Amino acid sequence: MKNKKHIRVFLAAGGSGGHIFPAIALSRELDNKGLDVNFISSKRQLDRTLLSAYKDKSFFLSINPMPYNFNPVKWVVFFCKIFWDIMFALFLIVRFRPNVFVGFGGYSTGAASLGAKLLGIPILIHEQNSETGRANKILSRVAKVIAVSFKDSIELIPKKSARVVYTGNPIRNIMSFNNKKEARSLLGLNSDKYTILIIGGSQGSTFLNRTALAMAKVLNETKQGEIQFIHLTGIKDYESVLESYAENNISAKVFPFLNNIEYAYSACDIAISRSGAAVIFELALYGKPMILVPYPSLKNSQRSNARYFMREGAAILREEKDLSGNILAEDILKIFNNKEISDKMAQSSLFLACPKAAMNLAEEVIKLV
Fold first, then answer.
1. Euclidean distance between the first and the last CA atom of the chain, given in angstroms as a whole number
2. Which fold has domain 4-169+355-368?
3. Average pLDDT estimate for 195-222
């Protein structure tokens, strides 16, 4: 194998934190092993923000999701953009001459992967979700290796020339901190109260914010003084959610986002969350029971992720259309009032975690060199 200092790897990920966080986790592992890593992402502001620490090693393609319906104008725009994105990807690949290309899905992976294929660069695709996304379904036909986060996913991927391996889902470097009492102190919370974390994904969720507020009002009446909240709202709803907790005299710490997310994971007893792969595997590392509310669109994999965690006993699955503040409060009280249920969910959650996922994936990358 080549000297590791001369091994270059391109990581393509964009469109959501769920795609980008695993790429960052892998980059750290590869960097520790002495490999040179560059990112290809999209021009979306979220992507630029998440990769701001790697701005000198990041390149950005257009925001160009594949249209879902047959609209001639949208498809013409899509193919024009993807043509120029492939040209730019080819330029980058010729310039940097990577030894391996790794795609994580999202806006930018498709065009960049096709550029890598045209120049004969071996491709590894990583699928974060239980069900394979559209881009990764297409790219699985040109990949040498397909790595999956869920063991069950191995059976769902067409087996042609690619080798399918289970690596787990690489997550952010957050496990260096895991102390409930200290986390609550750092967040300004009571050290003895039952603590509920509400988190709606990297951009927040207005529906989840409103429903969780309604739930908090119910619990504040029935369990006054026993429960407190950590609520990550996203930027849009931050002020209104903060005011609502204050007006109803509910004990809560509200943040638009939290850079030190490990404090929230450590501090909470249970989490109410969307079911993107990144957040549920991070919560699993901390062994937290979950109530998962997948994003309602049929065109994403959050529902299948939540079903998997529900089947394994780590989560309660609730659909948006059936959910209210009262139902959410009933779910919380069922777990709050029964330590046996809570402990079983926590154990199941911890069992689903894969703390060596980044290391596993890095080994697969090195094998391709």
1. 7
2. Rossmann fold (3.40.50)
3. 90
